[in-house]
Amino acid sequence: MPYQPRVAILVPAPGYHETWQPAFARKAAALAGAGLAVEQRAWIDPGDLTGFDLILPLFAWGYQRDPARWYALLDRLEAEALPVVNPVPVLRWNSDKAYLAELGAGGVAVVPTIEVAALDDASLAEARGKLGVEEVVIKPAISGGADGTHRIAPDAPVPADAVGRRRLVQPLMPGILTEGEVSLFFFADRFSHAIVKRPAAGDFRVQTQFGGREAAWEASGEAQALAAAALAAAPAPPVYARVDMVGDAAGRLHIMELELIEPSLFLNFAPDGGAAFGWAIMSALPR
Length: 287
Known about the structure:
Layout: E1 6-11, H1 21-33, E2 37-42, E3 54-56, H2 67-79, H3 88-95, H4 99-105, E4 114-116, H5 121-131, E5 136-139, E6 150-152, E7 167-171, H6 174-178, E8 181-187, E9 190-198, E10 213-216, H7 221-231, E11 240-247, E12 253-259, H8 275-283
Parallel strand pairs: 1-2, 1-3
Antiparallel strand pairs: 4-7, 5-6, 5-7, 8-9, 8-11, 9-10, 11-12
Helix pairs in contact: 1-8
């Protein structure tokens, strides 16, 4: 029997609150179809990883709740020169949404963002003034799954869990309530598929745990070009990528975030069922 390269997928800690197993099964099936043998390791304590041909942090869900442990893991992977995809410099860069400022400075259309080191009512009012809006969204710079994300109405105070904390302040983009948030997926620099995620009535969050729903979306040339421009800013070309974007009042798309660590890839919407994803990972194996 020919040798099957061993791939470790980093998964959530035991007891993690979100259901991740169905998405894991889809990714594992795509990787198995490409000839890879898949094993699970909890990201918080993965043990000895030296026997693996490749390490994928595809389900390192919850890292935003323990950034110190996450960065320590990245340091370890780098120090041991382990084969990781996406590469550790990409993972580290993508962990903190400060990269949005870098994209904006490079001319990429991003959701306008103001970073505040210690948010309070005065700094929130100042950010509202700079953005020229009254209704805003705040989120941690290291975040995921809408953790710590709040929609703040005009004149409303800072939520208790954000007082004195580092936060990003953004306008509530009109497109999220009308058209939804769109996600484009790329494997080895090649566009695969796209979806639109719409929030439940009365909400602005598109995640399924808040009632969000997904549908296939036909990605325009404009959307694909914007995604490619954003991905070009990463420290190295990502092997897998999800690019989330949303429209402004005029319908012009802006980058909301890049998901290069542990994105849901919605392979059930991929025309090839995830074959391109499997091929991209197989092609990333060290030679």
